[in-house]
Prior knowledge:
Helices cover 43% and strands 15% of the residues. It has 7 helices and 7 strands.
Amino acid sequence: MPHLPVKSYKICVIIPTYNNEKTLKRVIDGVLSYIAEIYVINDGSTDGTRAILEEYPHIRVVHHPKNMGKGMALRTGFQRAQQDGFDYAITIDSDGQHYPKDIPILVQELLQHSKPVLLIGNRNMNQKGIPGKSSFGNRFSNFWFWFETGIQLEDTQSGFRAYPLRYLPQKLFTRKFEFEIEIIVRAAWKGILIKNVPIQVLYDLNERVSHFRPFQDFTRISILNTFLVCITLLYIKPRDFFRKIKKKAFGSFSEKISFS
Length: 260
């Protein structure tokens, strides 16, 4: 895989949002303290989101005419950022659960790698105030990610991430919350390093508006994992096995040539 020139990284922040008028302004102001290059993808909000965004004429704003799902909002952001020449996009949720002051932590970690890396914020899921459904959902997701990729992570559901835009998989089919699972699995299959980075998290039940629907979205995630497991068993594992055999055989052949 080609190396990225570390010193020339161009990094932006993508904020997907849907009806988070209570926290959106605080999130944008916090991000602006660290990075000026921001894309806000307004995914068909029906509250005061549009009026809030009009207060920020210098950031890039895309309005979806109707709600299309978080996955589609992220796709729109990735496409625009890549077209504008950015190497990495840091994504942060607009519901106020993430701390923009953790952005430098992700940036510093990126600078430690000369090859493409996809970073996922690692939340402390044992802290007080974490909803039980979030903790269970994360453990569930972690297990299937390990099964599908062989990579063990402590948090696979955090939306606070850094994506290597030019190396992301192109064949993605999901549109909503499950998109964030599909993209990291397919990125791992491409050989991109997936790594957790410790971050802080805030669950303020008075302000936070979550659009995760436990039954519908959990069902969609389960269907996605069933699909990914089938690909893993029928294609990825056989592919990796034969690659390992080929590499071992080629290595032995090269050694024989060098000693002959």
